[in-house]
Amino acid sequence: MNDSTTPLNSQDQTQEASADEPKQQQAPEIQSRFLYVDVAAQRAKQLRRGSLPRLSHLQAHPETGLRPDMPPKLERVAMDEVKAGLIEYELPDASGPKEKK
After folding, report:
1. CB under 8 A, 24+ apart: contacts of 24-30
2. Are 43 and 80 in contact (CB under 8 A)?
3. Cα–Cα distance between 87 and 81 in angstroms, integer?
4. Could you tell me the CA-to-CA distances from 12 to 9, 17, 76 in Å, in that order?
5. CA-to-CA distance for 7 and 13, rounded, in angstroms?
6. Which residues neighbour 5 within 8 Å (Cβ) at sequence distance 6 or greater?
7. How far is CA 35 from CA 4, 5, 8, 31, 79, in A?
8. Residue 16: is its pLDDT beyond 90?
9. What is the pLDDT of residue 24?
10. What is the pLDDT, as a whole number, of residue 32?
11. 86 with 27: CB under 8 angstroms?
12. Which of 19, 36, 41, 52 could be a cystine partner for 30, CB 3.0 to 4.6 Å?
């Protein structure tokens, strides 16, 4: 067995740690107002069911863990999140429904 050890540089450790963490990228800006409404409506539904908001001013305080009161209009929160690019979404295939023969 080989008992020799190789010291790790702190740069190597930070590179490994940053590679493990998912990088949060902003979603592309939505050009279609219909898609914007659909994505915001789905996000508002998630917020009503208890999802945590992604806007920085509505997140928990780092030291106390207390959250600010949620605004009464969760639709507005959802629209702000979509506008800020914080919501990821997927589009269905453009091929459309298959025809039956």
Report:
1. 26/84, 26/85, 26/86, 27/85, 27/86, 27/87, 27/88, 27/89, 28/85, 29/85, 30/82
2. no
3. 6
4. 5, 9, 43
5. 11
6. none
7. 59, 56, 48, 8, 12
8. no
9. 55
10. 94
11. yes
12. 36
- The CA distance from 9 to 76, in Å, is 47
Pairwise CA distance, residues 54 & 87, whole Å:
8
- pLDDT surpassing 80 at residue 84: yes
Cβ atoms within 10 Å, residue 30: 18
- Calpha distance 87→93 (Å, rounded): 19
Structure tokens at 47: 């917020």
The domain spans of the chain are 26-83
